[in-house]
Design a protein that fits this description.
Length: 106
Amino acid sequence: MKISIRIILFVIIIFSNLSFLNLGYNKILNLYNFQTKNNEFNFILLKEKGRDIELMNKKFELFKKENPETSDTVIFRVFERKPIKFWNWYKYLTDEIFKYPLLKEE
């Protein structure tokens, strides 16, 4: 009995991380906020509207050229991974937006 429950839970976790099933669990628009440590540069990523990582990196390079005096050279994500949302585990491991360091409150 316990083994079958574990197998069912394992299957649910695996299938919920498949991209075609994962769509149903997320909001229509996924907003992700990125910024530098001193909040001199801020970018809201919205892939559904074309505001992706490539655009953010281009805007950040432009920001650094226009502001050479800034000491902020790293972009941080301002959103956390939520391990309780097991249907996002695959995204947490594979999506490049989660490779940026987390800006922790001091």
